[in-house]
Design goal:
single chain, 64 residues, mainly alpha, DUF4748, membrane, transmembrane, transmembrane helix
């Protein structure tokens, strides 16, 4: 039994909708993973700057 015009359009919309939702899910998962990694990096940087340090008298000069 061949599919009618409306059935083909419905199947097309279903495929487009499901693929769009799936691609959105993958993109969101990727962004969340990258955000989590960046948060971990920032946390490590923040923790590395905690503590007391001796004063340094080194002078940095700009020589060309």
């Amino acid at each position: 039994m061949p599919l009618g015009r409306d059935a083909k359009i419905g199947i097309g919309w279903a495929i487009v909708t499901v693929s769009g939702l799936f691609s959105f899910y993958l993109a969101k998962k990727s962004v969340d993973k990258r955000r989590y990694e960046n948060m971990k990096i920032r946390e490590r940087m923040r923790q590395s700057n905690v503590g007391e340090y001796e004063q340094s008298y080194r002078k940095f000069s700009t020589t060309s």
